[in-house]
Specification:
The structure holds two protein chains of two kinds. By secondary structure, chain A is α/β, with parallel strands linked by helices. Chain A has four helices and 13 strands. Classes of the chains: A alpha/beta, B alpha/beta.
Chain lengths: 174, 294
């Protein structure tokens, strides 16, 4: 008997079969295993991670196995990436493969006075750009006021760690 | 240098009837001073200020020291007591580690805080989803624990998986389920019961798990941590069911990691999360590590 799935994966193909749109929700743990997919004619893969709640070490292994089956010439676009996944982009070798890009991700914010958390979404080419061999990565942190006390909230991350995945040298080595 | 000598001024405030006797004959290896000529891992606690994991793990490996405590934390003396107890009376620590994390037991020094706790016993993988669901509900019952819900559930998941897959051994100490896919179904022998517990006050959340096997391979764990943190190779071995990342995830998501085991009898693994801090401060918060075998 296998463990009950704690995640939900939706896969949709565009009418012309050139694009696959995936949504991954819930807990990525030992039950996160994707059946082999047919990538014939596929030109891009879009992965929405908005409702991914957490990832365990077994989920990381499942993710890496899943990436192995994706042909290296198919670009992967990650959308709405939550902190739990950004952390792995920054920590685990191979978790954020070279053929992929982050289109948008969440940044945790915190109000020290009210103990309130928030998580604005930032978008590629609007709020941030990844580094290249010619220029460094850049990010414009959103300005956010606390809903309770109206004071300025602060990005609740160690910037050099959280935005590491945007760094060209880091990507090159990982 | 003896612990009681080094911290004589601070310990003068502690009542003699308390745990003071536990601290006697314990040596301190202070990283800010030249290394001692001889280190006995069974009587020594290493201390340092804001010491990075790389340094701590190198120290654990090279000197076989079992306890590292950061001096620049407000719970420094609590952890020093915990480390001393693990060295001198480990069974006592194993029996109830909670007072070392939930600090209202020192009523004269610290204000009383609300403490919430819950315990689950388990013997099979079929119970895991229910436990995780109940833990999630428990964590949602307090704003601070809810903020750290993902980290806490992730740690609990690793603890339960380890207890069911990595810990069980047969009479010849041969691993029973180590190589099974983690999605397999396992039911332990009726006489073998594991326990997951959670406890928190306003500042700390403690997650712990015990198993009745005491089968930890300490050298292998320290070597794996050395590869991950010092050699910076965090890519898991995908051919192995135990990818070796679980312990890293527990350490990364907590401010204190405690592993105590009595060979062939019992293992206790605990992680503490500093729930009163912002994510940023908690990431920068120096980590304590403890690995104790008796």
């Amino acid at each position: 008997m296998k463990a009950e799935n704690s995640n939900k994966i939706k896969i949709q193909r565009s009418p012309d079969k050139t694009q696959i749109q995936m949504t991954i929700e819930g807990r990525l743990d030992e039950t996160f295993r994707l059946e082999p997919m047919d990538f014939t004619g596929v030109q891009s893969l879009i992965v929405d991670l908005k409702d991914t709640k957490l990832i365990t070490s077994q989920g990381i292994a499942g993710w890496l196995l899943w990436l192995q089956q994706i042909p290296k010439d198919i670009p992967i676009l990650f959308q709405k990436v939550p902190k739990v996944i950004v952390d792995q982009f920054n920590l685990v070798k191979g978790f954020y493969p070279k053929q992929s890009l982050v289109e948008s991700f969440y940044i945790p914010y915190y109000c020290d006075a009210c103990d309130r958390h928030s998580s604005p979404l930032v978008t590629r080419l609007v709020d941030f750009t990844e580094g290249t061999s010619e220029k460094s990565e850049s990010i414009a942190l959103p300005k956010l006021d606390c809903e309770d006390c109206k004071r300025k909230m602060e990005a609740d991350v160690v910037e050099e760690k959280y935005f590491r995945f945007l760094n060209f040298e880091y990507r090159r080595k990982s | 240098m003896r612990l009681t000598e080094k911290y004589a001024h601070q310990l003068a405030k502690v009542e003699k009837s308390t745990l003071l006797e536990i601290l006697e004959d314990i040596d301190i290896f202070d990283l800010s001073l030249p290394p001692p000529k001889k280190v006995d891992p069974k009587t020594t606690i290493a201390v340092g200020a804001a010491t990075p994991l790389k340094t701590i793990i190198t120290l654990l490996r090279d000197y076989e020291i079992e306890h590292f405590v950061q001096t620049n934390r407000n719970d420094f003396f609590f952890d020093l007591f915990a480390a001393s107890l693990m060295l001198k009376k480990p069974s006592r620590f194993m029996k109830n580690p909670v007072p070392f994390f939930i600090q209202n037991f020192k009523k004269d020094l610290i204000k009383h805080h609300e403490v919430r706790s819950k315990t689950w016993t388990f013997q099979s993988t079929a119970q895991k989803n229910t436990i995780m669901g109940e833990l999630e509900n428990f964590l949602s019952g307090h704003a601070r624990t809810q903020n750290y819900s993902s980290s806490a559930i992730m740690i609990a998941d690793e603890l339960v998986s380890n207890a069911l897959f990595s810990a069980p051994v047969d009479e010849d100490s041969k691993a029973l389920y180590q190589n099974l896919p983690r999605s397999s179904s396992i039911v332990l022998d009726m006489s073998k019961e594991c326990e997951l517990f959670v406890s928190h006050d306003e500042h700390r959340l403690l997650l712990g798990c015990t198993d009745p096997f005491g089968s930890v391979d300490m050298k292998k764990i320290i070597q794996r941590l050395y590869t991950i943190y010092v050699l910076e190779d965090s890519k898991p071995d995908l051919k192995s069911q135990s990818a070796g990342l679980g312990i890293k995830m527990m350490i990364d998501n907590s401010c204190g990691f405690y592993l105590v085991y009595k060979r062939n009898i019992k293992t206790l693994v605990c992680c503490a999360i500093p729930i009163s801090l912002s994510y940023k401060k908690s990431e920068l918060y120096p980590k304590n590590l403890h690995f104790s075998m008796f």
